[in-house]
Specification:
The chain is an alpha/beta fold and 430 residues long. It has two domains: 184 residues, Periplasmic binding protein-like II (D-Maltodextrin-Binding Protein, domain 2); 194 residues, 3-Layer(aba) Sandwich (D-Maltodextrin-Binding Protein, domain 2), CATH 3.40.190.10. Helix content is 43%, strand content 13%. The two termini are 29 Å apart. The N terminus is likely disordered.
Amino acid sequence: MPSGDSGDQLNSSSPGRRRFLQMTSITGLASLAGCTGYIGASRDGVEYWTLFGGGDGTVMEAIVDEINAGDTYDGLQINKQRVPWEEYYGRLYTSMVGGNPPDIGVMHSRMMRDYQDSLVSVTDEIGTEPYLDEMAQGGVVDGEQLAVPIDTHPFGLYYNKEIFEEAGLDPEDPPNTPERFAEVAETIVENTDYWALDFPEGQYAAETMRMLLHSRGGQLLTDDYEPAFETDDGLAVVREMHDWVHEREWAPVDPTNGWDAWNRGEVGMKIEGTWHITVVREAGFEFGLTEPFVMPDADDPVTVGDSHMLIIPQSNDRNRERLEETIETVRLLSQRFNDQWGYDAGHLPASEVALNSDTLRESDTWEQTLETFYGMVEEEQIVRPPATPNVEEYTEQIYQPLDDMRAGNLTPEAVIETAAAGVTQTFERR
């Protein structure tokens, strides 16, 4: 899965995105409109930018096609444009400062801080009541609803039931405690020729660290955006990730090899998010999912999960009719079609009605994955990455040394030191 990093980041001498949006007049930058290849109201219909690819993208395209084809929605037309993941936030940012944004964009809730001053409030038009509160609050800033959730997508621990059987393990006894996880991993390594585990690289390596650290009562950042992982717990977490590869040899050094082996049915367990159900279905082996509670000495184990939100960027070119169509599109995507986003794309829907619908609860997806994800949300065993400035920049300062450690180039102690220095420098440049 791509890391989600923007392919169009500002250089280190430039002001942060949020500050730049505050400093820059959208009207004054209208001359930049040609930079993004899209002029805000140049086409009929609601302009909708997404970053969904793979199975997610196919499902969202089917939803939009159904809206466009039907007479049920008063002739509403949506012009959906998929922007590649690595380019998405850079292009969205450029379109907003250039005065020619889409009518609707997708945004991870952790990115809200850099964009919140240039979003249309939908507090009165939509509100938070239709949605699960844990998800809805990710779009609320100072009491104003600036983004509408369509899901949360936490991590789980997927496992290959066929490898469990080959190793002599009970495939219906999930590895959902640190002790059971370690027992299973050792058994797979001893009794088969397969890897026991694979886990993410890049941004999601940093989120894996966040998950494990919160499970030990820690956190990555303080409220003042200082590194909070220079602790015994922080070092224990990084050592655990190191030892999965270099001491116990449960996981391969090269994450690409791990990904390929998993898809060939040659890895026992994998830490991944809700979206991964489309991957394992395509891979074709029998799988299970359980809670990713794998960190030893974790008193309060948690998963980690962000939310996809729908935003309406401010625009001088959007008239009242277009705004009403835009709001109706947000309502349809986040409510009317939200159960389909769950049972087809695999994400946990944000809409209360969708979550309790018979269509969702009776689906294979609910039984295979969503019931477990929902259980963690209901038990408050989920941590949302905080909305901060410089999200992409500070997470990169954490995942780069983690990836270097996996490659065998850094010790756990060096990862802590390098990551802490990088995070400090990132926020000092604000």
